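Let us practice reading a record.
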Amino acid sequence: MKLTDDAQKIIDESPNKVELEAALEQINELLEEQAIQPTELQWTILINHVNEMIKRSIAGEKMSGVDPQMFEEVSKEALMISDKVVQHIGNLPQDEMYVLSIHFEAARQNEA
């Protein structure tokens, strides 16, 4: 995982740095298992999203609902990674999984 200065800044300035780093370590392992390699920009956007997810988890905030049918084109691999991350963070609605999966699906397309 190669991080830009912006990505490292998000991590360093996060009030939940320990939780964020743990989630990113898990994500990196899951992506390697699936041979998915996000670009530096994709990592930066993903890190920002995961940081916000952790904030919502801690605050007990729920994002507005999403329609799972909108995500029918997302691969089972992207959804699986996403589901594991949501479970790891905890205290998040299942809707978070769908929104997060877009990051992994976009990174999957890098090789195509």
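A brief commentary: The two ends are 20 Å apart (CA to CA).
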